[in-house]
Amino acid sequence: MGAVRVRRAVPEDVAELDAMIRELAEYEREPDAVEATPEDLAAALFGEQPRVFAHVAEVETDRGWEVAGSAVWFTTYSTWTGRHGTWLEDLYVRPQHRGGGIGRRLLAALAAEAVASGHRRLEWTVLDWNTSAQAVYAAVGAGPQDEWTTWRLTGAELEQLAGSAQAPRG
Question: Catalytic annotation on 27?
Answer without folding.
Answer: no
